[in-house]
Amino acid sequence: MAEDNCSLASDPESRFKLIFLTPKSSTQDILQYLLKKFPRELGSISPQKHSAFITSGMDQYTPGPEANPTIGAPGVEERVDENKVEMVVNGGVEVLRRAVNELKLVHPYEEVGYEVYRLECTS
C-alpha cells in the first residue's frame, strides 16, 4: 500500500505547492536545476520522486518603461508560449524560501511569475 502523502511531512504545516511560469524553452533546465538542488524536498509525492505537473499556455504582458525584459521591449505588448509548472515542496517555510530564491537565480526572466500555497492534510 502506498504511503499517505501527509505522512511524508513530519509537520502538516510544512507542505506547500510552488507554481511558476517559464518560457517553454527553459522549463526542463529550470526543473533539473531545482530537482538537483532539492532532491528530497521538491516533487516528492508518496512513492513518486521529481514529480511536476506542466501545462502549456500563452502569457501576455507589456514591459514597463524601466524594464529590461528577456523577451520583448519596454512599452511593446508581448505574447510568449510558456509552461506553468506545479510542484510540491516538503520541508517547511525555510526550504520553500530557498527553493524560491534558487528559482529566481536560474529563471531567465527579470521578474519571475510564481505562486505559493500551503497544502492541507485531509487524512
Name a few traits of the molecule.
single chain, 123 residues, alpha+beta, Alpha-Beta Plaits, four-stranded antiparallel β-sheet, 2 helices, elongated
Please tell me about this protein's structure.
With 123 residues, the protein is of the alpha+beta class. The protein has one domain: Alpha-Beta Plaits (2-Layer Sandwich). 20% of the residues lie in helices and 29% in strands. The chain is elongated. It starts with 14 loop residues before the first strand and ends in a 5-residue tail after the last strand.
First-residue to last-residue Cα separation: 15 Å
Largest sheet, strands/sense/barrel: 4 strands, antiparallel
Assign the CATH architecture.
Answer: 2-Layer Sandwich
What is the ordering of alpha helices and beta strands? Answer: EHEEHE
Number of strands: 4
Which whole number gives the mean pLDDT? 90
Strand content: 25-35%
SSE-based structural type? alpha+beta
Number of helices: 2
Task: Count structural domains.
Answer: 1
Shape: elongated
- What order do the strands of the largest sheet run in, or round the barrel if closed? 2-3-1-4
Q: Roughly how many Å is the radius of gyration?
A: 16 Å
Could you estimate the helical fraction of the residues in percent?
10-25%
CATH fold-level name = Alpha-Beta Plaits
Give start-end ranges of low-pLDDT stretches. Answer: none
CATH class: Alpha Beta
Entry summary:
By secondary structure, the chain is α+β, with helices and mostly antiparallel strands.
Which secondary structure elements does this structure contain, and how are they paired or packed?
Elements: E1 15-23, H1 27-37, E2 53-61, E3 78-90, H2 93-106, E4 114-118
Antiparallel strand pairs: 1-3, 1-4, 2-3
Helix pairs in contact: 1-2
